[in-house]
Design brief:
490 residues, alpha/beta, TIM Barrel, 2 domains, 8-stranded parallel barrel, 11% strand, binds flavin mononucleotide, binds iron/sulfur cluster
Length: 490
């Protein structure tokens, strides 16, 4: 992962945990309305993909155990990982693109309800993503993947000077290209073709010459609405539309979206599809369950959105009828590191990825509550427009006074914590019960994120080697780690 050049190692914030009485009157543990539901406390567990679904996207017993364990800590809201809305093979990513996934999802909602004693609202994050391929070996790229055109022939002829080679067969073009040194490729290939070779091909929302990309605005509202309806049927309290990071909807919102069909370019055009998706979802499920979204307060890439774009979008998305806005940051393909041959690009390896999940090795500012200035500005814009839509802030939140001051300063209405909750799923509950001293504190070195990058079952280094031989422990497929945090023995 990219790290700030300063590479200052920060200490975890000093703590002074409250007593149970102090916690009872804290802002963090006051209720808040989110659309048609009331959230009992303002603690939020944001989406985290744990790589526990089956190869064909079904809920497995490991998925249920994973969420049951988080539900035991009774967060106000628990958001189930990014879940695919299409009925297409997507490896072990959870899916909701067909009714056959309903049975497993129903079991999941029942398990969470039981484990939290009904205290936790359960949402599911709905995602659409575009095709991405692994980085090919150079010879394979020229031998098979590159689509040969007349432009390549002309460029090769020009490059060959007086050579009378005509490159009439495709084979001849491929052979010549493969033999070219890298330094000469820019004369023959487009920047995009070079990128496909060096990083692996990926679709972009601006590839409107491709029919499946051109028709995204016609297809996506229906797909999101179908998925939201299934979420309602499965018993979820709400859906979180994934408009963040490197995925389709965030790419529509991004300033890099130059589509010229009314769905790109100026801000009102970039927000058009998200607003149409919200409209379709609302029409389908009315006000029965919560509908919110996660989107970026800053793309953190050259030419991408900044917080003033995000504040403007926040107002439009709230006006479109969302019940909450959850703010994330970065996590883009554009600045991702070049993957190794045979690997796919991972959108959390560049600076924007760092800003999404900042580590303890940081700049002066450090990783803690690093991104709340974004939720603060978005919230202020939404309030100034006269709406009370709750805003969720995240990023390095791991301590009571820090979470409390985010709420006190009006930087967010709910406080989300991913990695600290992974390190200790009971941490919010321990604070509430005046037992903060028992919290296992996240070290923010991103061992969990590295597992995610390799699509390995995600665990936390602080507990995954503990009591491996205990009778009730399930072990990861590498045989070395427990899959679920140990129970909190009071
Ligand atoms: C292993 C892992 C998986 C994640 N998966 C998702 C995801 O599916 N959807 C999402 O919006 N964010 C995802 N995130 C980002 C987190 O929700 C969160 O925004 C980020 O970790 C910063 O919050 P934190 O500092 O509290 O960890 C993931 C993070 C981690 C560590
Ligand atoms: S693996 Fe590291 S960064 Fe991830 S939750 Fe555990 S301590 Fe935190």
């Amino acid at each position: 992962m990219w790290q700030p050049p300063e590479r200052i190692k920060h200490e975890l914030p000093a703590v002074s945990w409250p007593t149970a009485e102090q916690a009872a009157s804290a802002r963090l543990f006051q209720p808040i309305a989110i659309g048609p539901r009331t959230c009992r406390v303002r603690t939020w567990l944001p989406a985290m993909v744990p790589w526990r679904a089956s190869e064909d996207g079904f809920v497995t017993p490991d998925v249920i155990d994973w969420y049951r364990r988080f539900a035991e800590g009774k967060p106000g809201v628990l958001v189930v990982e990014a879940t695919g809305i299409r009925d297409v093979p997507s490896g072990p990513l959870l899916r909701i693109g067909h009714d056959r996934f309903l049975e497993g999802l129903k079991q999941l909602t029942a398990a969470v309800r039981e484990a939290s004693g009904g205290e936790t609202l359960l949402f599911i994050q709905l995602i659409d993503f575009l095709q991405i391929r692994r980085r090919p070996p150079r010879d394979k790229f020229f031998g098979r993947f590159l689509a040969i055109t007349e432009r390549h022939r002309e460029a090769l002829r020009a490059l060959g000077g007086n050579s009378d080679e005509r490159f009439e067969t495709e084979e001849a073009v491929r052979t010549r290209l493969a033999a070219l040194p890298d330094s000469e490729l820019p004369y023959v290939l487009t920047a995009r073709e070079i990128e496909d070779m060096e990083r692996g091909y990926r679709d972009r929302v601006t590839d409107t010459h491709l029919p499946h990309i051109k028709e995204l605005p016609q297809v996506l509202p229906g797909l999101f609405a179908d998925a939201a309806e299934r979420a309602r049927t499965a018993g979820f309290d709400g859906v979180e539309l994934h408009f963040a990071h490197a995925y389709t909807m965030a790419s529509f919102l991004s300033a890099l979206n130059t589509r010229d069909d009314g769905y790109g370019g100026k801000r009102p055009h970039r927000v058009r599809l998200p607003v149409e998706v919200i409209g379709a979802v609302r029409q389908r499920i009315a006000n029965d369950i919560v509908v919110g979204c996660r989107y970026l307060g800053d793309d953190v890439i050259e030419g991408g959105n900044r917080v003033d774009d995000a504040a403007w979008f926040g107002v439009e998305l709230a006006k479109a009828g969302l019940d909450f806005l959850s703010i994330s940051k970065g996590g883009k393909f554009e600045d991702a590191k070049q993957p190794k041959v045979g690997w796919s690009s991972y959108p959390y390896t560049g600076r924007s990825g760092y800003e999404c999940m900042p580590t303890i090795y940081s700049d002066e500012r450090g990783p803690f509550a690093r991104n709340v200035s974004l939720s603060a500005q978005i919230r202020a814009a939404v309030r100034a427009a006269g709406m009370q839509t709750p805003v969720v802030g995240a990023g390095g939140i791991c301590e009571f006074a820090q979470a409390e001051s985010v709420l006190e300063r009006g930087e967010a209405d709910l406080v989300a914590s991913a990695r600290q909750s992974l390190a200790d799923p009971d941490w919010f509950l321990k604070i509430r019960e005046g037992r903060g001293g028992e919290i296992r504190r996240c070290e923010f070195t991103n061992y969990c994120e590295a597992l995610d990058q390799q699509h390995k079952q995600v665990t936390c280094k602080l507990w995954d080697r503990e009591a491996l031989d205990a009778p009730d422990v399930t072990i990861a497929s590498d045989g070395k780690r427990r899959l679920i945090a140990p129970k909190w023995r009071r």
